[in-house]
Amino acid sequence: VNKGQMRALRHMLKTIPQDIPRVLARALNKIARATNTRILRGITKRYTITQRDLKDKNITLSKANYKTLRAVINIHGRRIRLLHFKAKQLKKGVSYKIRKSGRRKKVYAFMESPPGSGQPTMMPKTGHRGVFTRRGKKRLPIVELYGPSVPAIFQNLREFASTSFQRELGQKLGKEMQIQAGLLLKRKSRVTYAAA
Fold it and tell me: What's the pTM value of the predicted model, to 2 decimals?
């Protein structure tokens, strides 16, 4: 929020300055939610992972309130299971595809148990699905294979680190502050009119 945007907001709410923090929090959260959605779409546009596998687990939103005027998009998480990158069982091995624009790759692994192993199509007891391989020549141990983490994927999306994107966010926030202030003034005027 720049000085000009704050001046305009204070001018609009000069009769109710105590409501400025509430308006700011609402505007911040509106822009943060839209940005969160934009990040999700940016990732799934370029990578084969789905929004369902990203949402709530790896990208979360900490909302602003009238006491804490800050909305934060948290991008975190460990490497994502290879299963979520279009993994496909082949006769020999498993193929997968990380980027939509890239080629499918093949790894010596299995999604289903290899013939004669006596194992089910998922990890025993836990029911955990994934892409697995053996560590060494013996039957055990079996380890799961992973793709990149969401933070690593996000770092490759340069558009979100650009100055033009930051400028765009600032402009949208300024407009949203005006919208939220206008909505609040309308609600206040209706209450005043009803009371009269």
Answer: 0.80
